[in-house]
Design goal:
Layout lengths: L1 E12 L2 E13 L4 E5 L6 H9 L6 E6 L2 E2 L5 H7 L1 E4 L6 E5 H9 L5 H10 L4 H4 L3 E2 L5 H13 L5 E5 L7 H17 L3 E5 L3 H4 L4 E6 L2 E7 H11 L10
Protein backbone atom coordinates (compact mmCIF):
# COMPACT_ATOMS: atom_id res chain seq x y z
CA UNK A 1 0.00 0.00 0.00
CA UNK A 2 1.20 3.50 -0.85
CA UNK A 3 0.40 6.37 1.47
CA UNK A 4 1.16 9.95 0.47
CA UNK A 5 0.81 12.58 3.18
CA UNK A 6 0.83 16.35 2.60
CA UNK A 7 3.26 16.14 -0.31
CA UNK A 8 4.59 19.48 -1.58
CA UNK A 9 7.12 20.26 -4.30
CA UNK A 10 8.35 23.77 -5.09
CA UNK A 11 10.50 25.38 -7.76
CA UNK A 12 12.30 28.71 -7.81
CA UNK A 13 11.79 30.68 -11.00
CA UNK A 14 13.66 33.97 -11.32
CA UNK A 15 13.77 34.35 -7.56
CA UNK A 16 10.08 33.56 -7.13
CA UNK A 17 9.09 30.38 -5.33
CA UNK A 18 6.20 28.46 -6.85
CA UNK A 19 4.49 25.28 -5.69
CA UNK A 20 3.93 22.67 -8.42
CA UNK A 21 2.52 20.01 -6.07
CA UNK A 22 0.52 21.51 -3.23
CA UNK A 23 -0.07 19.57 -0.01
CA UNK A 24 -1.37 16.43 -1.72
CA UNK A 25 -2.53 13.41 0.30
CA UNK A 26 -3.85 10.13 -1.12
CA UNK A 27 -3.36 6.36 -0.97
CA UNK A 28 -3.20 3.39 -3.32
CA UNK A 29 -4.29 0.03 -1.92
CA UNK A 30 -2.60 -3.28 -2.68
CA UNK A 31 -3.60 -4.46 -6.15
CA UNK A 32 -5.50 -1.24 -6.90
CA UNK A 33 -5.36 0.76 -10.11
CA UNK A 34 -5.45 4.51 -9.57
CA UNK A 35 -5.68 6.62 -12.73
CA UNK A 36 -4.56 10.23 -12.37
CA UNK A 37 -5.91 12.68 -14.91
CA UNK A 38 -6.45 16.41 -15.23
CA UNK A 39 -5.53 19.42 -17.37
CA UNK A 40 -2.07 19.72 -18.89
CA UNK A 41 0.38 21.54 -16.64
CA UNK A 42 -1.53 20.61 -13.51
CA UNK A 43 1.37 18.79 -11.83
CA UNK A 44 0.62 15.15 -12.66
CA UNK A 45 4.02 14.23 -14.11
CA UNK A 46 5.82 16.19 -11.39
CA UNK A 47 3.91 14.25 -8.75
CA UNK A 48 5.00 10.98 -10.41
CA UNK A 49 8.64 12.08 -10.42
CA UNK A 50 8.47 13.00 -6.74
CA UNK A 51 6.98 9.57 -5.94
CA UNK A 52 9.84 7.88 -7.83
CA UNK A 53 12.53 10.06 -6.24
CA UNK A 54 13.54 11.82 -9.44
CA UNK A 55 12.59 15.05 -7.70
CA UNK A 56 12.83 15.60 -3.93
CA UNK A 57 9.73 16.62 -2.00
CA UNK A 58 9.95 19.85 -0.03
CA UNK A 59 7.38 18.68 2.48
CA UNK A 60 5.33 15.59 3.28
CA UNK A 61 5.81 11.84 3.53
CA UNK A 62 5.79 8.87 1.14
CA UNK A 63 5.17 5.52 2.79
CA UNK A 64 5.28 2.17 0.96
CA UNK A 65 4.00 -0.89 2.84
CA UNK A 66 4.59 0.87 6.15
CA UNK A 67 8.15 1.92 5.25
CA UNK A 68 8.90 5.66 5.10
CA UNK A 69 10.76 6.09 1.80
CA UNK A 70 10.63 9.90 1.71
CA UNK A 71 14.42 10.24 2.06
CA UNK A 72 15.22 7.43 -0.40
CA UNK A 73 16.85 8.26 -3.73
CA UNK A 74 15.61 6.76 -7.01
CA UNK A 75 17.77 3.63 -6.69
CA UNK A 76 16.60 2.88 -3.16
CA UNK A 77 12.96 3.40 -4.18
CA UNK A 78 13.42 1.01 -7.08
CA UNK A 79 14.87 -1.55 -4.67
CA UNK A 80 11.95 -0.93 -2.31
CA UNK A 81 9.58 -1.98 -5.09
CA UNK A 82 8.61 1.01 -7.26
CA UNK A 83 8.74 0.77 -11.06
CA UNK A 84 8.49 3.84 -13.29
CA UNK A 85 7.88 4.46 -17.00
CA UNK A 86 8.75 7.96 -18.20
CA UNK A 87 6.49 9.99 -20.45
CA UNK A 88 9.60 10.71 -22.55
CA UNK A 89 11.90 7.69 -22.11
CA UNK A 90 15.68 8.34 -21.99
CA UNK A 91 18.00 6.93 -24.66
CA UNK A 92 21.32 5.19 -24.06
CA UNK A 93 23.74 5.14 -26.97
CA UNK A 94 25.88 2.00 -26.93
CA UNK A 95 23.44 -0.04 -24.82
CA UNK A 96 21.54 -2.85 -26.50
CA UNK A 97 17.88 -3.55 -25.90
CA UNK A 98 18.67 -6.94 -24.33
CA UNK A 99 21.16 -5.32 -21.93
CA UNK A 100 18.65 -2.66 -20.90
CA UNK A 101 16.00 -5.29 -20.18
CA UNK A 102 18.48 -7.29 -18.09
CA UNK A 103 19.41 -4.22 -16.07
CA UNK A 104 15.73 -3.51 -15.50
CA UNK A 105 15.13 -7.09 -14.36
CA UNK A 106 18.11 -7.01 -11.99
CA UNK A 107 19.56 -10.18 -13.53
CA UNK A 108 20.88 -11.45 -16.84
CA UNK A 109 17.87 -12.41 -18.94
CA UNK A 110 17.88 -15.21 -21.45
CA UNK A 111 17.22 -14.23 -25.06
CA UNK A 112 13.86 -16.02 -24.89
CA UNK A 113 12.87 -13.90 -21.85
CA UNK A 114 13.83 -10.69 -23.63
CA UNK A 115 11.85 -11.75 -26.67
CA UNK A 116 8.82 -12.48 -24.51
CA UNK A 117 8.93 -9.02 -22.95
CA UNK A 118 9.27 -7.32 -26.33
CA UNK A 119 6.41 -9.30 -27.78
CA UNK A 120 4.17 -8.25 -24.88
CA UNK A 121 4.53 -4.60 -25.90
CA UNK A 122 4.10 -5.18 -29.63
CA UNK A 123 7.73 -5.20 -30.80
CA UNK A 124 9.03 -7.90 -33.13
CA UNK A 125 11.61 -9.39 -30.79
CA UNK A 126 14.25 -10.56 -33.28
CA UNK A 127 14.34 -7.13 -34.93
CA UNK A 128 14.97 -5.25 -31.70
CA UNK A 129 16.86 -7.41 -29.22
CA UNK A 130 20.35 -6.42 -30.50
CA UNK A 131 19.54 -2.85 -31.45
CA UNK A 132 20.95 0.07 -29.51
CA UNK A 133 18.67 2.22 -27.37
CA UNK A 134 19.55 5.39 -29.27
CA UNK A 135 18.15 7.94 -31.70
CA UNK A 136 17.48 5.28 -34.35
CA UNK A 137 14.42 4.21 -32.34
CA UNK A 138 11.23 6.23 -32.81
CA UNK A 139 9.33 7.80 -29.95
CA UNK A 140 6.72 5.07 -30.09
CA UNK A 141 9.36 2.32 -30.07
CA UNK A 142 11.04 3.93 -27.07
CA UNK A 143 7.75 4.17 -25.21
CA UNK A 144 6.99 0.48 -25.71
CA UNK A 145 10.54 -0.49 -24.75
CA UNK A 146 10.26 1.64 -21.60
CA UNK A 147 7.10 -0.19 -20.60
CA UNK A 148 8.83 -3.53 -21.24
CA UNK A 149 11.53 -2.55 -18.72
CA UNK A 150 8.84 -2.10 -16.06
CA UNK A 151 7.30 -5.47 -16.95
CA UNK A 152 10.74 -7.11 -16.61
CA UNK A 153 10.55 -7.18 -12.81
CA UNK A 154 7.87 -7.64 -10.19
CA UNK A 155 7.10 -4.44 -8.29
CA UNK A 156 4.92 -3.44 -5.38
CA UNK A 157 3.89 -0.32 -7.30
CA UNK A 158 4.19 0.53 -11.01
CA UNK A 159 3.86 4.14 -12.19
CA UNK A 160 3.16 4.78 -15.88
CA UNK A 161 3.27 8.41 -17.07
CA UNK A 162 0.99 8.76 -20.11
CA UNK A 163 1.72 5.30 -21.56
CA UNK A 164 -0.48 6.07 -24.57
CA UNK A 165 1.69 8.95 -25.78
CA UNK A 166 3.39 8.45 -29.14
CA UNK A 167 2.17 4.94 -29.99
CA UNK A 168 -0.17 3.64 -32.66
CA UNK A 169 -3.63 2.25 -31.96
CA UNK A 170 -2.59 -1.40 -32.41
CA UNK A 171 0.23 -1.07 -29.88
CA UNK A 172 -2.06 0.84 -27.56
CA UNK A 173 -4.53 -2.05 -27.60
CA UNK A 174 -1.73 -4.44 -26.65
CA UNK A 175 -0.73 -2.20 -23.74
CA UNK A 176 -4.32 -2.10 -22.53
CA UNK A 177 -4.25 -5.89 -22.46
CA UNK A 178 -1.05 -5.87 -20.40
CA UNK A 179 -2.50 -3.43 -17.87
CA UNK A 180 -5.61 -5.58 -17.61
CA UNK A 181 -3.48 -8.68 -16.95
CA UNK A 182 -1.40 -6.93 -14.27
CA UNK A 183 -4.52 -5.57 -12.65
CA UNK A 184 -6.36 -8.88 -12.71
CA UNK A 185 -3.56 -10.61 -10.78
CA UNK A 186 -3.85 -8.01 -7.98
CA UNK A 187 -0.17 -8.56 -7.18
CA UNK A 188 1.00 -5.04 -8.01
CA UNK A 189 -0.55 -1.64 -7.43
CA UNK A 190 -0.77 0.64 -10.46
CA UNK A 191 -0.70 4.40 -10.93
CA UNK A 192 -1.46 5.42 -14.51
CA UNK A 193 -1.32 9.05 -15.55
CA UNK A 194 -3.51 9.39 -18.61
CA UNK A 195 -5.89 11.50 -20.69
CA UNK A 196 -7.14 8.44 -22.57
CA UNK A 197 -10.72 7.41 -21.80
CA UNK A 198 -10.02 3.69 -22.33
CA UNK A 199 -7.38 3.79 -19.61
CA UNK A 200 -9.48 5.95 -17.29
CA UNK A 201 -12.31 3.44 -17.58
CA UNK A 202 -10.00 0.68 -16.31
CA UNK A 203 -9.45 2.42 -12.98
CA UNK A 204 -10.66 1.34 -9.57
CA UNK A 205 -10.39 4.96 -8.50
CA UNK A 206 -9.75 8.20 -10.38
CA UNK A 207 -7.88 11.22 -9.07
CA UNK A 208 -8.07 14.57 -10.85
CA UNK A 209 -5.09 16.92 -10.38
CA UNK A 210 -5.64 20.60 -11.16
CA UNK A 211 -3.21 23.42 -10.42
CA UNK A 212 -1.08 21.12 -8.25
CA UNK A 213 -3.98 20.08 -6.03
CA UNK A 214 -6.49 17.25 -5.92
CA UNK A 215 -9.62 18.48 -7.64
CA UNK A 216 -11.51 15.24 -7.11
CA UNK A 217 -10.80 11.67 -6.06
CA UNK A 218 -13.05 8.68 -5.69
CA UNK A 219 -14.36 5.46 -7.24
CA UNK A 220 -14.56 5.36 -11.04
CA UNK A 221 -18.34 5.14 -10.85
CA UNK A 222 -18.39 8.47 -9.03
CA UNK A 223 -15.69 10.48 -10.84
CA UNK A 224 -15.99 9.31 -14.47
CA UNK A 225 -19.53 10.72 -14.96
CA UNK A 226 -18.22 14.08 -13.74
CA UNK A 227 -15.44 14.01 -16.35
CA UNK A 228 -17.84 13.00 -19.11
CA UNK A 229 -20.24 15.79 -18.13
CA UNK A 230 -17.45 18.36 -18.35
CA UNK A 231 -16.58 17.19 -21.85
CA UNK A 232 -13.94 19.13 -23.75
CA UNK A 233 -14.01 21.96 -21.21
CA UNK A 234 -12.23 19.64 -18.81
CA UNK A 235 -9.26 19.43 -21.22
CA UNK A 236 -8.16 16.25 -19.51
CA UNK A 237 -9.68 13.33 -21.39
CA UNK A 238 -9.11 12.01 -24.88
CA UNK A 239 -11.93 9.85 -26.24
CA UNK A 240 -10.13 8.75 -29.39
Amino acid sequence: MLEVKNLTFKVNENGIERSIVKNISFHVDDGEMLVITGPNGGGKSTLAKVLMGIEDADEGQIILDGEDITSYDINHRANAGIGFAFQQPPRFKGMTVSRLLSLAAGRELKESECCGLLSRVGLCAQEYIKREVDSTLSGGEMKRLEIATVLAKHHKLCIFDEPEAGIDLWSFSMLIQQFEKIHSRKEESLILISHQERIIRMADRIMVIEDGKIGAVGPKEEILPQLLDKGDSCACMNRE
